[in-house]
Specification:
The structure is a homodimer.
Chain A lengths: L1 H14 L4 E2 L5 H4 L8 E2 L2 E3 L4 H13 L4 E4 L11 E2 L2 E4 L6 E5 L4 E5 L4 H9 L3 E2 L12 H6 L7 H4 L6 E8 L4 E4 L12 H5 L7 E9 L1 E2 L3 E9 L2 H15 L3 E6 L2 H10 L13 E8 L5 H13 L3 E6 L3 H12 L1 H5 L6 E6 L5 H15 L4 E7 L4 E7 L5 H17 L15 H7 L2 H14 L15
Helix pairs in contact in A: 1-3, 8-10, 13-14
């Protein structure tokens, strides 16, 4: 206890009393979005600069405290869960240090909220393409530490590809300065991509240089009921070929999703009767409208019977409405417990197989269980939530293990975009190449020898 | 000596006499393209499979031998230079294990030559976008270990972005299996991107899953003389906006380059008189021809005075001719010694500044020195070769240091795409963030504790 008091005193001397939260004041960090994971930290420190983050980490080191960074607290895998750690909130580091439209770069601090970056870019007719439902809360440090995915990866690539530079506070408090804005840089090992997606176990991201891209001037957006998943993939290929790859989102929303949507958000009226398979399509063009392309490709697919029904939006309000139908996914997913939530990636042509085999497996283990699927189909990324009929750990784990087995069998990944955190440690042990796990542990031990940076996350103990 | 004999015996027992080269038989590995770097290995082993690579590395470990992997031997930085190491040539691992057109993936072994991948993709109307002059010799393991860049990065992104999966033999002989073909995979630390560009210091790449993309059906290609560098960048932005980012190459070839081209390759006739600044432009479209866009944008730029002269190619032979003018760069660069060759990256809007300040510095140090510049301008990547008038180490280093100073001052990198090898160790010591160097060394020590994987490369001793 004495040690803790000394640590808190040091932190207060550095940051001021108002920025070292304890007790009740930490309540808003205690619970995550899923409701499954809890944080019960010794304190939450709120440094206002990279230098203060560095000093805070040094104080933690001196007093032997574990350090858990937190951004917008929108993660889904227990990445900030802890007991007795020093949480470091980046929420005061909200400066957009620089934005140079001609160079297409924004230099941001780790606490900037994603939608604020969108707004700042938009003022210059630019976009930062990464987007997902929680964009109004998620912060730079968090969405980079999880290499967050979202709906636009099919067009603009992964988050890693949108980051040019990075600033990280290491376990010993030193600042790693990789804040370049270069398109090419082969000067040694690629440290940037190692810290992106590391979920805070190697260091704390404090700043980044992000790529901004020209804002599409024209959008073509549609909701289409399709015959089956292969028809959806054929449709995607035709749209890509006809538009030079202008498809920005291609989201699979089958009957299970549309039914949950109708139940929980009847205000989001659906343009046609619910059918087995539907996709939301958004295309973006700089130099030409894409409405004709959308209409032609869909008309052709209606004739071949691959598309059963379709609605092309006529204005921005309709477009927003279709997007809202997709973006409330997290809200309508976490409506009841128990759940087994999965975020898996598959080879593009393996999604239909996955769903079929998973349903067969579920019918054996828990025939009355419901499930809900929504997928970034263009990336082979399926969000599958199972609602089992019984809430005992062994039962939930049996379901999880069955799903993992199908995923790994098909050459997939047990985490596509949400990360590992605490939620998938057992899965990592069961399913990840043991050599890869060893290499990860060796890197972790090299950079954080005292195991104080978000300990216990990402890599299961051997 | 006894040890060496024992090691060679073990290798011969594993691979057969024909695949353990010594003495004269190693001559073709002794010299690199630049003529500056030498390899004098104990032997060159030529394993035929991942398992044989693994066994070879284990034999090297048992006998305390350093291991230096070699692919097509087209590197420019001394990455395979050594004395007394066991070189491991991947040249027998030339299988394209799988190519699935609908999934857009090719599974290749590390010894496959780049142009063979191009041909295999082309047969299915697909491309593997990475390309550069040495594509007829460079092999997978080499171009991935250097994260090779080239002319198409402006359109298709870096080599890292074109790799989905990777297979690596580690220092202890274990095989790290990251051979997935997923678009998204957040299951732990990003090991793939760490081994890509590591120049063999962390392990030996033995296989990869590469992304294949639809082959453009239409090309528009031109050579244009421009007023100055800012005009060139304005031209690039206009072309990108008018074509939805279809610019595949935007190569700067100023007077110094065109003059050397005229001298060394008079057969490659130039379409107009040499002027101060020229750019080669190539655009590629899937769904529409881009000739009209090229013509309109160039015509507009001629009117504003930004473009002084231009030639748009009318057929594939002319297009090939223009590309040849660019791709002989390595050939016409390394025609005489001494040279100080630089491969630097700058913020896009810093290239003009760099050239001006570099010329001013050179005028002070060696007023009679020549220089030759060719640049991937769309990436801010400048290849600058200086031909000093005196060949003494201190003089060459003074030039190098002056250039580095300008680069770092402008927020650039001292290696854009060629890598570090041996050639830029001093530069790394002088110019790289010392914290970054420490982190690299810590990772190296964790994965290769005995320092046997391509030792002495990339990271200078502290």
């Amino acid at each position: 206890m004495t040690d803790h008091r000394a640590a808190l005193n040091d932190l207060r001397a550095l940051l001021g009393d108002a920025h070292v939260l304890t007790g009740e004041a930490t309540a808003r960090f205690a619970k995550d979005w899923t409701g499954k994971w809890r944080a019960d930290p010794l304190a939450v420190a709120r440094p206002a600069s990279t230098d203060q983050v560095s000093q805070t980490v040094r104080i933690a080191a001196r007093h032997g405290l574990a350090v858990v960074p937190v951004g917008g607290n929108t993660g889904l895998v227990g990445g900030t869960a802890n007991t007795g750690a020093l949480m470091i909130s980046l929420e005061r580091m909200t400066a957009i240090r620089d934005l140079r439209p001609d160079a297409g770069v924004a230099v941001v601090e780790a606490g900037v909220v994603l939608s604020d970056i969108h707004d700042a870019a938009d003022a210059h007719d630019l976009i930062f393409p990464l987007t997902f439902g929680a964009r109004g809360s998620a912060r730079v440090g968090g969405f980079l530490s999880t290499n967050a995915g979202g709906s636009n990866v099919v067009r603009y690539g992964s988050t890693r590809g949108l980051v040019l530079g990075l600033e990280v506070v290491l376990a010993d408090g030193r600042v790693l300065d990789l804040m370049s804005e270069l398109r090419k840089d082969n000067s040694g090992l690629d440290l940037r991509d190692l810290f992106i997606g590391a979920e805070g176990v190697l260091g704390i991201i404090t700043g980044a240089v992000l790529r901004l891209l020209p804002k599409p001037r024209h959008h073509a957006t549609a909701l289409a009921a399709v015959r089956d998943l292969p028809s959806a993939l054929t449709l995607l290929r035709r749209l890509q070929a006809a538009s030079d790859g202008a498809v920005e989102a291609f989201e699979y929303m089958p009957r299970s999703y549309m039914t949950a949507l109708a139940t929980h958000r009847p205000d989001l009226r659906q343009p046609f009767a619910i059918q087995d398979h539907a996709v939301m399509i958004d295309m973006g063009g700089l130099s030409r409208p894409l409405g004709d392309v959308m209409e032609e490709v869909l008309a052709e697919a209606v004739e071949t019977g691959e598309v059963l029904d379709a609605m092309i939006t006529q204005n921005e309000a309709q477009r927003r409405h279709i997007w809202d139908m997709r973006e409330v996914a997290a809200e309508i997913t976490f409506t009841r417990l128990p759940i087994v939530d999965n975020d898996v990636a598959l080879p593009l042509d393996g999604v239909a197989d996955f769903i079929e085999r998973m349903h067969a497996g579920l019918a054996r283990i828990d025939p009355q269980a419901d499930d809900l699927i929504v997928a970034h189909l263009g990336d082979g990324n399926v969000h599958l939530t199972v609602y089992p009929t019984r809430d005992d750990a062994a039962h939930l784990d049996a379901i999880r293990e069955m799903i993992e087995g199908v995923v790994v069998d098909l050459g997939g990944s047990i985490s596509a975009e949400h990360g590992i955190g605490l939620s998938k440690l057992a899965t990592m042990t069961r399913r990840k190449d043991p050599v890869a796990l060893d290499v990860m542990r060796a890197i972790k031990a090299a950079l954080d020898p005292d195991n104080r940076m978000n300990p216990g996350k990402v890599m299961p103990d051997p």
